[in-house]
Write a structure and sequence with these properties.
The protein is an all-alpha fold. It contains 2 helices and no strands. The protein has a domain of 28 residues. Keywords: Plasmid.
Length: 47
């Protein structure tokens, strides 16, 4: 469970900055994928 939390999005997002919902969702998903890719790279580097 703790490992899953580490992969979660840690950024701060606001929908009050004029961002539409689709752009907001895309940014959250892109950030989550980036975090996952970074964690996978760390695991590969440990091998």
């Amino acid at each position: 469970m703790l490992y899953a939390r580490k992969l979660s999005v840690n950024g701060s997002y606001s929908t009050n900055d004029g961002t539409n919902t689709n752009d907001f969702v895309k940014k959250v998903i892109d950030d989550a994928l980036k975090n996952i890719e970074e964690e996978l790279k760390k695991l590969d580097d440990k091998k």
